[in-house]
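Reopening this one. Same input as before:
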Amino acid sequence: MASEKQNREELEERARHGETVVPGGTGGKSLEAQQHLAEGRSRGGQTRKQQLGSEGYHEMGTKGGQTRKEQMGREGYQEMGRKGGLSTMEKSGEERAAEEGIEIDESKFRND
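Same output, byte for byte:
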C-alpha cells in the first residue's frame, strides 16, 4: 500500500502534467495550486449564497440553466446532461462514454 507521501508525490506529478487531481482545481499546475483554486472557488460560491440568500442563489442557478438550454437547444442540453451524468471523480463524461461505448452526439451542442 502506498504511503501518504508517495500518494502526494504521485498527485503532484500528475498535476504538473496538466491533470486536475483536486475537484475544482482546474488550471493549477501543482497540487498546492489546485488545492488553493478549489478552496477559493468554494468560498466564492458560499459568499454569493450569503449575499443572495438560499432562494436567490437557487434562482440564479435555475436561470443560468435555462439560458444555457436556450443557447444549446433542447437536444443539445439533453446530450450535455447525458455526458455530465457519466462523469466521476476519476474520469470525465467523455472518457467514460468512450470506454463504455456510449455515443454522445456533440453535433447537437449548438451555440447560436
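So the earlier flakiness isn't reproducible anymore. For the record, The helical segments are 4-16, 31-86, 93-100.
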